[in-house]
TrEMBL record:
Pfam families with a match to the protein in the record: MADF_DNA_bdg (PF10545)
Domain of life: Eukaryota
Protein name (record): MADF domain-containing protein
PROSITE patterns xrefs: MADF (PS51029)
MADF domain ranges (all copies): 40-130
Source species of the chain: Acanthoscelides obtectus (Bean weevil)
Range of residues in the leader sequence: none
């Protein structure tokens, strides 16, 4: 066992190692996310609506969400930080894939299904992610106002 500080030690044979994020030292595990493991992870995430469904009251209960994150972290033998990062990365990849599908030019064959293996598994996120229209005001020199759409959680 290697001593990292007076309050923190880590065993190298478990596959955990320390990283510094800013001035905070975190312990992460050296884990391979296979397609099978990621698929199971997504199913667990889907079965935990307090983590993703902002339309339910439990979504605002931080203690409940932290307990669920700890439970998932224990199941996958990693840290809560890694679970949060995995969720963030999966959601980002899902939205990137969806944006690709939406930006297909007219005249080409319409794709309704993403090529990424987890696209359909994460399609439950479409129910809680809404498009919000934003506008910017015209500048003093008479430029037209810009209108854009972006995806956000409401």
């Amino acid at each position: 066992m290697r001593q990292l500080s007076t309050r923190f030690s880590v065993s190298n044979d478990v596959g955990f190692y320390p990283i510094a994020i800013g001035s905070v030292l975190h312990v992460v595990c050296d884990m391979e996310w296979t397609i099978e493991k990621t698929t199971l992870f997504i199913e667990d995430y889907h079965n935990s609506p307090e983590l993703w469904n902002n339309k339910i009251a439990a979504y605002k209960d931080n203690r409940l969400k932290n307990d669920k994150l700890k439970q998932i972290a224990t199941k996958y033998e990693c840290t809560v930080i890694e679970v949060k990062n995995k969720i963030k990365n999966l959601r980002s990849a899902f939205h990137r894939e969806r944006k690709k599908l939406q930006s297909k030019k007219s005249g080409s064959s319409p794709l309704t299904k993403g090529k990424w293996f987890a696209f359909e598994l994460l399609s439950f996120l479409l129910d809680v992610d809404k498009h919000r229209r934003t506008t910017s005001t015209a500048s003093d020199n008479g430029e037209e106002s810009a209108v854009s759409f972006f995806c956000t959680k409401i």
